[in-house]
Target: Pyrimidine-nucleoside phosphorylase
Amino acid sequence: MVDLITKKRDGQTLTQEEIEWMIDNYVSDAIPDYQMSAMLMAIYFNGMEDTEQAQLAFAMLHSGDVLNLDQIPGIKVDKHSTGGVGDKISIPLAPLVASLGVPIPMISGRGLGHTGGTLDKLESIPGFNVNLSEKEFVDLVQEHGEAIVSASGDMAPADRRIYALRDVTGTVESIPLIASSIMSKKIASGTNALVFDVKVGNGAFMKTEEDATKLAEALVSIGKQANVNSVALLTDMSQPLGITIGNSLEIAESIAILRNQGPKDVRDLTIKLAAQMLVLGQKAPSLEVAIGLAEDALRDGRALKKFKQLIQDQGGDPAVVDNPKLLPQAQYKIAVKAPRAGYVVGIDTNALGVAVMQLGGGRAKKDAALDLAVGLVLHKKLGTPVSEGDTLAMIHANQEDVSAIAAQVQQAYTIDSNVPVVPPLIHKVIR
Ligand code: URA
Model:
């Protein structure tokens, strides 16, 4: 291991054999954390070649179970988002694409810090179970073309251990380490194709377009080397997606999208990502045709019906679709007002995510319990004119005094007299 650390420290490329040896021996405890930490720091500073980062992803992938979905006919397609605030897209997207015949074996995550997680959101539906056995998961994707579950403990254990080590050694923010970590888990889920939603902006992991582009390229490159056809969209996170942040609030917004209503940005992104998935799944010959198919399935209720099916299949109460009031509701609703007139020229997206976390809707620490009812409903987004005293956002809380959080939400908004340029929803597409 000392030779490998020195090699990487000096900027050389590790061979496949060396990478596999290192991961095998780390998982079996033959390599101690302090040596792996030094290796991670060397990778952080010197990066990895395209083939090297793919080999790292494959070595971590093969440290655990790899699902085989070959028994399910058709091209299986999944979506992965690098995480944002108000990003509820997976929830309307999975049933929409499944309603058009593409099998969706979706393995999702939980929220941490300022970002939410699909599994937490789904758990705000009474009874919804994200912890299915492998057989239940495969059977549902085969029978009804969709399931959204948590990764089993046996998938990519090397990544779990390395990620925990990165967290405490200042080596999280490394593109080859992030890309290989994400891909080891995604490939383990047995999908044939992947669409990545790489977020860019002040609410995202990647704050600049340059970094987001590098991450998108790394993900697509590893996907290709694994024969998993991949496309990445760089999408905007300089403001939250849609108008809700918080678990049950985001489910209600997702239901609105599936009813062919809801905020335009959530609808547009759902349709654009669906179109990429339909083309990868060979259910549409072009993106234009795919967009038309997705719009039809939202309009005629097929996607909504498929969501009811998903809820039913995973033990949830499908009545929430017709009556979202059955979702957990917060006790108090408090308005945050605009301190002056002008235009909303900036939103500190990260701060809004943190505000929801402080209300109890997100986790400061892994495994913390959540209050699924709380969150924010935004009344103003980037570029909107406001008068003094207008409501910027409503806080949904289960505590009476939210004055400190209300001040944070107010400060997260920058109001100025000049009309701002609002960034496009989709910055670019990388294949
Ligand atoms: N998500 C992951 O799964 N891994 C990382 O390294 C970062 C985000």
Residues 163, 177-178, 181-182 surround uracil (CB under 6 Å). The CA atoms of residues 132 and 149 lie 7 Å apart. The chain has a mean pLDDT of 96. The first strand starts at residue 77 and ends at 81.
